[in-house]
Design a protein that fits this description.
six-stranded antiparallel beta sheet, mainly beta, single chain, 209 residues, six-stranded mixed beta sheet
């Protein structure tokens, strides 16, 4: 077990997630890499048995929910739900035919009442050449110029969230604005940055100040 993450809800529910199994690198014949979670309904005094996430939610690849504090929405389409970024490697999970050329971020929401994870579709603007763009929708967020690694979210408006990603980009971090257009759909726009010069890629939580 590793890379633990925790979300706390106003009704006393707490959810704790972790990666369990083989690791992020491997083949389809290697043992599974699972994302698991437990739930407490009494502020952490007692816990449920362990649940295992359906690997289809993160493309049949190997991955983990970013460790740290999990963002819980206080208003908007996903009010009362947790929002996580599950980063994947390019390696297929056990008995999976999936593959990827770049690391991906699968955005998922967690409903504490239903104890259920839901994948969020991500729409982005992509260049078609000659200065024009078109909207494309994916199951994940991907950057083909720089890798996206573990991420954190903070809510900044009713249906808007800032995503901060560990990366090998200049400054060792990339930022996106996610705007939810429904409970299961969001648009992602990269945010320009200046003056960031981290010594190396690292994890870090976001806070709303």
């Amino acid at each position: 077990y590793g890379d633990a993450a925790v979300a706390s809800f106003s009704n006393g529910t707490v959810v704790a997630t972790a990666i369990h199994g083989f690791g992020l690198a491997g083949s389809s014949t290697d043992p599974a890499t699972d994302v698991v979670w437990k739930v407490s309904r009494d502020n952490g005094k007692s816990w449920s048995s362990e649940y295992t996430m359906d690997r289809k939610l993160f493309g049949g690849l190997r991955g983990n929910i970013s460790p740290g504090n999990i963002c819980v929405a206080n208003e908007g389409y996903i009010k009362g739900k947790a929002l996580v970024g599950l980063r994947t490697s390019t390696s297929p999970n056990y008995q999976s035919r999936s593959s990827a050329s770049h690391q991906r971020i699968y955005c998922l929401t967690y409903d504490p009442d239903e104890n259920k994870w839901t994948q969020v579709k991500i729409s982005v603007q992509e260049s078609t050449g000659w200065g024009s763009t078109e909207t494309k929708t994916y199951d994940y967020l991907e950057n083909t110029s720089n890798y996206l690694d573990e991420v954190q979210f903070v809510q900044v408006a009713k249906d808007q969230y800032i995503l901060s990603a560990r990366s090998n980009a200049s400054g060792n971090r990339l930022f996106y604005r996610l705007t939810f257009t429904s409970a299961i759909e969001a648009t992602a726009t990269m945010i320009s940055q200046s003056g960031m010069n981290l010594a190396n890629p690292c994890n870090g939580d976001l806070i709303k100040y």
